[in-house]
Amino acid sequence: MTADMVRLAEHAGKALFAKFGIPVPEGYVVRSLGEIRETTKPMAAKAQVLAGGRGKAGGILFGSNQEQLERAVTSLLSMRIGGEKVSEVLIEERLNIIDEYYVSISVDRSAGIPMLMVIPHGGTEVETTESQNILKWNIHPFIDLPEYVCRECANQLILGPQQATHLEQVLTSLWRLFWAMDCDLAEINPLVKTGLGDLIAADAKVTIDDDALFRHPELPRESGERTPLELEARDLGLSMVQLDGGVGVVANGAGLTMATLDNLALHGSSGGVFLDLGGTDDEKVVEGALSLLSRASQRVILVNIFGGITKCDTVAEGIVAARKRLDITTPIVARIRGVNEDRARSILAADGIMAFEDLDDACKEAARLEGA
Amino acid sequence: MSILVDEKSKVMVQGITGHQGSFHAQEMLSYGTKVVAGVAPGRGGSKLLGLPVLESVSEAVEETGADISIVFVPAKNARDAVIEAIESDLRLVVIVSEHIPEHDAIELVQYAKLRGTTIIGPNCPGVTSPGKSKVGIMPNSIFKRGKIGVVSRSGTLTYEIVSALTKNGLGQSTCLGIGGDPVVGTSFVDSLAMFELDPQTEAIVLVGEIGGTAEEEAASFIASYVSKPIFAYIAGRTAPPGKKMGHAGAIISRGRGTAQSKIDALSQAGALIADLPKDIPKLVASRITQ
Fold it and tell me: Do the domain assignments include residue B131?
């Protein structure tokens, strides 16, 4: 099965922020020029795409009057950013920014619990910040975010008593949101200090653990970062990544699929598809997997099964059925080991598919066929 | 000796009435594991595979003296099943179920630590001490009793490597799959510490993959605390950045978690690195006399 995240658009993230008590700029979303409201104030127009580097790509524009704002929205709605067509624009009051900070909560994999990260001078990317300039506190889920962490954080940001209270509210709310909504990441970059002394979330990046979506039926299912075939794979309960090469690799287990791709590379061949069957036991799923591979325009299909929870003969039956039903002409190389392997090999042999015992031999053969 | 499980281990199966639960309960019995009970709320009082099926974990402990549970309960109900096992003071809980929400995994791992229960997984193939006990879903035929400890983040890739060891006459003390999720109960470091203390284990094979820093942490632990020879294979050398490669934890993000970084860290700590899974036995044989 796939394991992924759902990333919310900025406006959806900000709606969650507002719901949990984090101040956000007043704003609304438009999909066409006609939806722009009358304004006399300076406004910001922000393309609602999930791709990174939106600011640098010109995806945020400003207008100090109605005419400029309309021009900005027209321009944004005709843009593509990182391959993604802009179909929604968030219009917000323009903030009077005195200072900016980076604030996020994510899961610290080493500690196995969440972590609050703060960078005193935000507007920067956490990726490019020296680690000694990032403030970090682990948050234990049985304890919640302690007040002292908020105090220390306010001291590090050199905030006055009024802003310190605001900061505590922002951090506490962000933590409550992170935990209640099964977030993988809840990030405010930047958190802005305005001329009036308020702290406002100028952007929102919220990703939700896909595996927890059953607890949040109101959230969207799409992350917008997958190809149509990858989405189809997900709906089948498979994990698929499309790559650049010509050999479609399907194996049971993520590690084994990666190892198969690595092994192929040693024979000068590169994989075109990573497809993890997972622990499936279902002939129909195997058939679906082969259908996906045959449509991903691969020159060779390499099947690598090491049976455990997945029975080798079930997979073999699925392969044979799929070849017949879908009329797949792409050459198939198989490597079969594990539970019911003998039966699996004879099923494949009866259909003219060569099934190797050794992975390296199978990779060599797949690379040879790709070059042939 | 061996680690985590041996011939004395008494195992209950939570979710024994499901498809995977019943299949693998049978497989474990065939392997010789002392599977003593199944737990299936709402189905208590029946029998399956000659085993009593009971309503609750505490009932299974009372009636059979089980000290270990293996959990096949679907992800949505897994949190509750594991809490029940932890609160019954089981020594070890092996969570096979995949797709457990990450926040649930965080809570379960932290709670188990507080209560003194060891968790393996979630999303893991379990643990086998060859010739003694198998608490997991690894194929029965691949093992041979011996001196090599195996620890891995992957499932099938572990079978691959264990089977290659066995084929080359290199038996194993214990084979442990810690799971591919970002948050797991037993880490590489925990496993290495147990293998270092286990007199049966003379060498350790570590199978890692891209994502996170568990292999780097293992490397610093090895440098300071592990005297036994380490052999490692890392999957995902050709994986592109920013893509989750099947496992929730297998992602190169923000330039961290690459295979190269793990390979460098481990070889600096003195581990021998294999380029292919099947090279592991050659490397091991070059250093160990069986």
Answer: no
